[in-house]
């Protein structure tokens, strides 16, 4: 039976939430107030997280398919689970394609994109076939290095000579409207994507600790994300940050401390690799679980599901997107509504469960 520790859950959530988000200037449509956008989105994301973590309190060690079936019956639960499976696979293609393109841009410019994608999908197949606990242990090993690299980056930026907190002023200079106009996008990405962890709560050894660990991990992730935004805007300025493809990489390239500390773009490659890998692996694992539960497959048959759909993932990703701009438009501009829809569906499910529990208790 698969069981993961609280530390492993913390590591998985942090790797998933930080992902590639620290590389980009989320909410930059609000200019120098982008960090306020993230703060507002975090508060809404916290409410969603409380909803998500209520399920293991009501149904400890019960998988999401069983929860759906118990709350809504098979006739509604099966189609809904199928929609969740499609959503997770769609998100996996977004993360996977972005991950591959960024690696190509920063580390392997002469390697065909399809080769990069297949190199990494074989790693994902290998780890997921070993079991979810292996993915959790991998996160436990790599996340301390991810945090160390990010914190080191922020410290180096601060002493680089290009750091100017004046770029963050004036706070709310254009009013609250630009901030509110960006909040929904950041709620969806990355906070709304936490919905995929509904597929994994039943693996956690200490069910009563799920909420505490999840809230702590998302809070730490938000702190890292806000710090990253402040650093990017302080170094590049809000205008340049808005038009730079990978703002964190641009800030790292600009670092030159006494001609000794230079060429730090390898740090961004490490962050891309760790973040992209775990975001892809977790979304894809969520799809495989949903698909297996949908057809009542045993655990041993999940390896076939993992292998077949993973081999198709690079082909589908390359076919689906025409480039990084197209992927970002479909993921944020065009796809944010679908992300928000699946992020808020568990709220309705929880209300239904609470209503049924209240009705049954009155009946007794």
Summarize the structure.
This protein is mostly helical. It contains 15 helices and no strands. The chain is globular, with a radius of gyration of 21 Å.
The number of domains is 1
Q: Helices and strands: which structural class?
A: mainly alpha
Which residue ranges are poorly predicted, with pLDDT under 50 across at least 5 consecutive positions?
Answer: none
Estimated share of beta-strand residues: under 5%
Span from first to last CA? 35 Å
How many helices? The count is 15
CATH superfamily: Amino acid/polyamine transporter I
Biggest sheet features:
none
Work out the helicity level. over 70%
Q: Give the mean pLDDT.
A: 88
CATH overall fold name: Amino acid/polyamine transporter I
Shape: globular
Would you identify the CATH architecture?
Answer: Up-down Bundle
User: CATH class, please?
Assistant: Mainly Alpha
- Radius of gyration (Å): 21 Å
Order of helices and strands: HHHHHHHHHHHHHHH
β-strand number: 0
Subcellular location: Membrane
Family: Belongs to the amino acid-polyamine-organocation (APC) superfamily. Spore germination protein (SGP) (TC 2.A.3.9) family.
Membrane topology: Multi-pass membrane protein
Protein name: Spore germination protein KB
